[in-house]
Amino acid sequence: MKTAIVWFKTDLRLEDNETLVKAIAQSDQIIPLYCFDDSQFTTTSYGFKKTGSFRAQFLLESSQDLDNNLRQLGSGLIIVKGKPEVEIAKIAQQYKAFKVFAKREVAYEEKNTERLVQNELFKMRCELETFSTSTLYHAEDLPFSIKDIPDVFTNFRKKIEKESSIRTIFDKPLLINSPQIPEAAFPKLNDLDLKFQAIDSRAAMHFKGGETEASKRLNYYFFQTKKISTYKETRNGLVGADYSSKFSAWLALGCISPRFIYHELKKYESNFGANESTYWLIFELLWRDFFRFMFKKHQSKMFQASGINSEKEIPKAVSEKLLKNWVSGNTNVDFIDANMIELKLTGFMSNRGRQNVASYLCNDLKLDWRYGASYFEQQLIDYDECSNWGNWAYIAGVGNDPRANRYFDIQKQAVVYDKDKSYRNLWLNS
Ligand SMILES: Cc1cc2nc3c(=O)[nH]c(=O)nc-3n(C[C@H](O)[C@H](O)[C@H](O)COP(=O)(O)OP(=O)(O)OC[C@H]3O[C@@H](n4cnc5c(N)ncnc54)[C@H](O)[C@@H]3O)c2cc1C
């Protein structure tokens, strides 16, 4: 009897999950496993938690949904908590697994954890096999080697659009053969050193974790409301659920794959027509891919003050007072404060808001950008290491922005994007 473990991480889904499909194909029975990694719930050297309560809640919901969906197919999810290299090795030994199947990582810390797990498994002659499952374009289909990936997005996009294609999806398995999986023991927020925080009722959206909810949102945004057909015109909005797709949180935990979104979009386009808006969602998903591949190329540099641009002088000091005022929405710049309050009370902020508050921290307050990135890491429901640190480095001028010294004039931005002040009134007048 060949038993394999499927180690779920930020791929909490059954649809289009190559790791799961390959594990099923190569073994007689599988053990689905999720490890709440203690290191993800510590406080960083910047003074912020790695995971705040909004995202932890979303993660709990997502893993519970995965457990439910697995049980419907005859399996279930084993939940462990601790160091992955210890906990996964224990389960591998208990079930005499011949292999652990998992998603392949690109970012520095995640890659390190992957290596530690592999070393422990190696000691018991158990293999770790990984699969690239989080991007729209498969890593092996890129028209350049990793070291030659262009550092400028437009060059990356043009070549990839011309020379690569997007693979088809892996169908969700219909049945899974597993031994009796004991009822999953999910941690409570307290066990993760966190307290429940209710999302403010003014939130753009009340995100609920899991593949089931991700698929509902996609159906809503595409087929029920056809909002996708006006996405390009609305995407710079600030108020409400539908100015943008809001797919990010589900994408970050892998409750939905970008490739699945792409193929659903193609169905939508063949029924209701393609236009600039339908294309633009793919364009944005390409940004997501771009940052992932940049992390593969530049590795830990994206977490360093000078990023991939060692020439640029950047402030390394931080004024605690200025940082505190920025975090709590007390800068006296109303557009910045409204955005920071939204983030604090809901775990979400629009893309337009993120660009402005990040630029303000770097260019106006002149603080070390990594404090801002670290606060976002704690606070965002949709936190994703590559998209977050990549975008922050970009705005700080140490990443992939070909334009030196990009500056957001906050007052001007507020006038253009919040002309009638409805956004600022929503968050500042309470
Ligand atoms: C400073 C800063 C930090 C950010 N941190 C994160 C983060 O931690 N996680 C995250 O998912 N996005 C991050 N973004 C990108 C972007 O702001 C969010 O993806 C977007 O606001 C999420 O809302 P949406 O799903 O409705 O986006 P939509 O506009 O509907 O876009 C569709 C999808 O495209 C991708 N996308 C869109 N814009 C970007 C972008 N600039 N970079 C990478 N991917 C993009 C996302 O996966 C998004 O879900 C950050 C942007 C900035 C400027």
UniProtKB/TrEMBL annotation:
Cofactor(s) of this protein: FAD; (6R)-5,10-methylene-5,6,7,8-tetrahydrofolate
Organism in which the protein naturally occurs: Flavobacterium myungsuense
Cofactor binding comment, as recorded: Binds 1 FAD per subunit.
Protein name in UniProt: Cryptochrome DASH
Keywords: Chromophore, FAD, Flavoprotein
Membership in a protein family: Belongs to the DNA photolyase class-1 family.
Domain Photolyase/cryptochrome alpha/beta: 2-136
Coiled-coil features, chain-numbered ranges: none
Domain of life: Bacteria
Function: May have a photoreceptor function.
Gene3D superfamilies on file: 1.25.40.80, DNA Cyclobutane Dipyrimidine Photolyase, subunit A, domain 3, HUPs
InterPro entries attached to this UniProt entry: Cry_DASH (IPR014133), Crypto/Photolyase_FAD-like_sf (IPR036134), Crypto/Photolyase_N_sf (IPR036155), Cryptochr/Photolyase_FAD-bd (IPR005101), Cryptochrome/DNA_photolyase_1 (IPR002081), DNA_photolyase_N (IPR006050), Rossmann-like_a/b/a_fold (IPR014729)
SUPFAM superfamilies for the chain: Cryptochrome/photolyase FAD-binding domain, Cryptochrome/photolyase, N-terminal domain
